[in-house]
Amino acid sequence: MNSKTFSSGLAMLLLTGAVLAEKRPNFLFILADDQSPFDLKVYDSDSPLDTPVIDSLAAEGLVFDGSYHMGAFIGGVCRPSRHMIMTGRTVWRLPHVRPPKKGSPPRKHPGTPLANETPVTPFDAENDSLPAVFNKAGYDTMRTCKNGNSYEAANELFTVRHDATKRGGPDPEGSGWHARQVLDYLDAREKSKDADPFLIYFGFSHPHDIRDGKSELLRKYGATNHRDKKSLPKLSPENPAPDLQVNYLPAHPFHHGHPGLRDEEKVSGVWKNRDEATIRNELGREYACSENIDIQIGRVLEKLEAMGELDNTYIIYTADHGIAIGRHGLTGKQNLYEHTWRVPFIVKGPGVKKGRALGNIYLLDISKTLFDLAGIESPELNEGISFKPVLEGKKEAVRDVLYGVYCGGTKPGMRCVKKGDWKLIKYDVLDGKVRETQLFNLAENPDELIKEHHDPDVVAFTGNQPKPNQLNLADDPKYADKLAEMEALLLSEQKRLDDPYRLWNQPDG
Ligand SMILES: [Ca+2]
């Protein structure tokens, strides 16, 4: 061995030693199913929902005030949302999604191409998905989540997988079951002295309906698992159910455009009812399920702490999308108001600054960011933007403009765009019968109140007297320039993101 070979060999040895000494971080990715950020005290200090574990994650980590899912082209909003999480692809470039040709038959599922159709995404998305990339990098990957409405080909790639839909109250039938899978996995790692870094995808089946809560938590939130379609739930005078939200309405002022939509008409305990008792009871059920999720996360964090892994683990808490449950007279997840388009997003981990940041992130940025934090190269076709600079406090936001879509019902559906304090929502549904435009200044009107919220009967329900300027500003001539600017911004986002549709007042794409 000459001296040059010896010294480069020594350098190599030292380098390997340095890499080994610097333990790679773990990831615990927690995903609630259907949760509005405004359910949580972190986002609405008036919320009666107790989530001490999430609150402490927020206190020790970074809370995002601008985190969104990009949208959906089917009623099952979960499905494209979860495809975006797995692949980092934007909504119209998900695997097997392409603009439908005029006259083509309706697509049953986005994961199923029509006859003779090639996917827009020109690669096997699952081979570049979150678990695939972490597997290749030498991580151990584990997943528990609900079944269905997800990206099955990617889900299969987790080396350990325990999926089942668990929407009951008692632990073996509900969120406790998902926590059990993670705890058993951690136990097994401990026994086998497994020292590889891990990615755990800790998904819940709640607070998605049916929101069957634990009896003690239902009692706490004044709710019952109401099942009788012929009666309304009885509110308990001793344990009052949660108050109606400030943006509750007994009805949305125009049709949302998806006739027969399950989440607006068929959810057990709610159906088509929008009365006070139904909505407050359902909110109580939502909160009972959400507090139980918090308890279950606490069990897993305790275990990580006992194993000495907590400080080397990034914990990401979010939901696949928000949910209305009475806000704006809607109950589902198929709208683009902030309560439903936005998601809760909290991150705690090594080097993550404490506090709040805007972020302006989509769920589709998660995979790119986790690769970045792990020092893994991201697949070329991942369209996400790493928000690691936001986590480190070096940047406030990763983008200026946000786009949202819902077109799972009649086409072209709903679109929205947000920039700074301004947000535009457009509805073009029911074959042109509904063509509506909403323009909100979210700094002055964060709850997106409209003229119906000013109705004295509604004020009597909500206890919230809106300020005179808390309105849809689209028809106010004072804001004509702002409206035109936002309309142009929406169209440019539609073009940039391959949105196959155009609205009534847009030039034909
Ligand atoms: Ca969902």
Automatic annotation (TrEMBL):
Pfam families to which the protein is assigned, alphabetical: Sulfatase (PF00884)
Annotated protein name in UniProt: Arylsulfatase
Disordered, as annotated region: 95-127
Segments of skewed composition (Basic residues): 95-110
PANTHER family the UniProt entry points to: ARYLSULFATASE K
Domain Sulfatase N-terminal intervals: 25-376
An MF annotation (GO) of this entry: arylsulfatase activity
InterPro entries assigned to the protein according to its UniProt record, in alphabetical order: Alkaline_phosphatase_core_sf, GAG-degrading_sulfatase, Sulfatase_N
